[in-house]
Amino acid sequence: MSVQFTGTDLFSGVTFNIGDRDRIGLVGMNGAGKSTLLKILCGWQEPESGTIVVATGQTVGYLPQEMVPDSVGTVLEEAMTAFSAIDDLEREQERLTAEIAERTDYESAEYTRLLERHNEVTEHLSLLGGGRRQEQAEKVLLGLGFKHSDFDRPVAVFSGGWQMRVELAKLLLRHPEFLLLDEPTNHLDIVSIQWLESYLANYSGAVVLVSHDRTFLDNITKRTIEITAGRIYDYKCPYSEYVVQMQERRASQMAQLTNQQRQVAQIEAFIERFRYKATKAKQVQSRVKMLERMEKITVDEVSTESIHFLFPPAPHSGKIVVEAQHLGKAYGDNQVFDGVDLLLTAGKKVAFVGRNGEGKSTMAKIIVGDINDYTGSFKLGAGVQMGYYAQNQAAMLNLDKTVFETIDDIAQGDIRPKIRNILGSFLFGDDDIDKKVKVLSGGEKARLALAKLLLTPSNLLILDEPTNHLDMNSKDILKNALLQYTGTLIVVSHDRDFLSGLTDELYEFRDGAVHEFKGDIMEFLDSFKEVSNTSAANTTTKTKETSSSKAAYEQSKERERERRKLQNAVKQVEQEIEALEAAIAAKDTILATGEVQTPDFYKEYQSQKDTLEQKMTAWEEAVIAAEQ
Prior knowledge:
Helix content: 40-55%
Radius of gyration: 31 Å
Distance between the termini: 40 Å
Strand content: 15-25%
Oligomer: single chain
Structural class: alpha/beta
Largest sheet: 6 strands, mixed
Shape: globular
Number of strands: 17
């Protein structure tokens, strides 16, 4: 496959296969063609040359990075539209069943095609679980962060991010065999991301995704396809392992290139030395042909461009930076949180985490003064100077100003002559500084908004989702700058890799309250899992400790018995599948002779194939149960 973009090869002679259970992460520099490749795979775009072959009957689902949903119903109604395919399949199944019952030309190719199509439809219906539609829809919506009370609300009243969650829910409920996701975590919180990871880990089809979330990629993908310089490199490993192997590959390329250059220099020196000696004419010609035949080794391009900056030293502030007592905020009848006590001292680095809509950004806006109609008391400490990066910071930029004007308007004193250097450190070259903000990409706007933070020294930084639209390299550099920042930091983020090691304290926003947690994000998530998995029996008193230990031992034995039982069930189903496959293969051999068979032969043949499909489904369920 080859694709061009503005005269340049985006892909050149690219070939690869995707298996029916693959978990693939697409990686590469911005502009390398990741999103373009997804559009080609789903049929939205055609390549200039080459072919895309999708197995017959395979369904493809695609979630683009940005879209404008046009939903008109409630959240649950919109999710239920995903099952329109089931309605069509059920009607087709009824039609096929009736036609098969009426026909008597059992030996014809047309009858065989009818049976095959009936099998395909039945298998797909079984996979989609047609009988539990609302239950499935509610389960997926809850997993993606919606509450039961949201189900009857119109989709149109939700923000764009929540509307994208509805689109993702519809896509998952359609259960395509081939799932393509472009930055699916952009609009999700940490809890919803973890749910999606678990869902995709057990997904029965192929998954190809683009993401700047390193942890998300590592937890889902087993294969990484890198797009670079119009070519692809296929690694049979998750992202973190890919990074190591990619660096080793490029080091090897560099070593091979160095050796080849040394060899070329030696050959050219020989040719030059003996060019005019008749006795060496044959050797010279031989070496000339050797150079012509030599395949030139190239080293894959590596982008050396990256933002590089440090925050200016934080001015001195009082020991207490932020103090809130019995703080509450409501929007109409919706009490976001209430009774919150918060005390941040100088130099603390904390994270606000929790589901979207629980009040993280609201709290940030109260601290910076954008929201004043709250209950309880709130005050900043002495000498606090704030820097604020809002979640929609990029959208708050003046679109009609140039990049240079955006910075020049707020630059003061000695920093004014350094504007070009500051912009250069955020990858805005001389050709970029006169661009209007409205023509910048999402990543460029995010970098420009970050550059504004450098211009005014602060001792309290509040960053609300600062990593949105930043690539992995830029996120790493921002994180390093924050680690060296000497002031107080409050960061709202759903990026676990970004938060890991950055903050030493968390505030979880949940169910109208704010819970303090001493520790790192990974420790918090581990404790969250432990709490979720801990039974109420763990709250029993010491008088029950002995019986609890005995009960735990008995539960352990029961789990082991259950595990062996499930493993035996898997083996039993596998034996039944082998027997059915052998029986079907025997009939296939008979059918290949072309001899006409009795109606009972075809009925038994079809019955065996139907049973095989049922056994395959039972085997998959048994394997999942045993693994769990």
